[in-house]
């Protein structure tokens, strides 16, 4: 009996990797073994950075809230402490958006907590 190799599945697997490596530089885009390593590494970075993205956004929101609060003579930590003490249930994302795009509303919150 002749040897059977599932070349259809093998080709599909290789094409999938090479398609994912589209746009890479040099041999990373067209040599399967090199592309496979590059794509695996890229997937690891993507997984890691989906977590880091959340951290980056939180720190951006904190910077924006801090800048907004300092205009009215408060630090970020004082402002957030008073927001929690006054049971204002706005998260950092919303507060940062108000501080940047709607300064009047942010000022009203600052006046309320002072």
From TrEMBL:
<dbReference type="GO" id="GO:0005840">
    <property type="term" value="C:ribosome"/>
</dbReference>
<keyword id="KW-0699">rRNA-binding</keyword>
<dbReference type="InterPro" id="IPR005813">
    <property type="entry name" value="Ribosomal_bL20"/>
</dbReference>
<dbReference type="InterPro" id="IPR035566">
    <property type="entry name" value="Ribosomal_protein_bL20_C"/>
</dbReference>
<comment type="similarity">
    <text>Belongs to the bacterial ribosomal protein bL20 family.</text>
</comment>
<keyword id="KW-0687">Ribonucleoprotein</keyword>
<dbReference type="GO" id="GO:0003735">
    <property type="term" value="F:structural constituent of ribosome"/>
</dbReference>
<dbReference type="GO" id="GO:0006412">
    <property type="term" value="P:translation"/>
</dbReference>
<keyword id="KW-0694">RNA-binding</keyword>
<dbReference type="Pfam" id="PF00453">
    <property type="entry name" value="Ribosomal_L20"/>
</dbReference>
<keyword id="KW-0689">Ribosomal protein</keyword>
<protein>
    <recommendedName>
        <fullName>Large ribosomal subunit protein bL20</fullName>
    </recommendedName>
</protein>
<dbReference type="GO" id="GO:0000027">
    <property type="term" value="P:ribosomal large subunit assembly"/>
</dbReference>
<comment type="function">
    <text>Binds directly to 23S ribosomal RNA and is necessary for the in vitro assembly process of the 50S ribosomal subunit. It is not involved in the protein synthesizing functions of that subunit.</text>
</comment>
<dbReference type="GO" id="GO:1990904">
    <property type="term" value="C:ribonucleoprotein complex"/>
</dbReference>
<dbReference type="InterPro" id="IPR049946">
    <property type="entry name" value="RIBOSOMAL_L20_CS"/>
</dbReference>
<dbReference type="GO" id="GO:0019843">
    <property type="term" value="F:rRNA binding"/>
</dbReference>
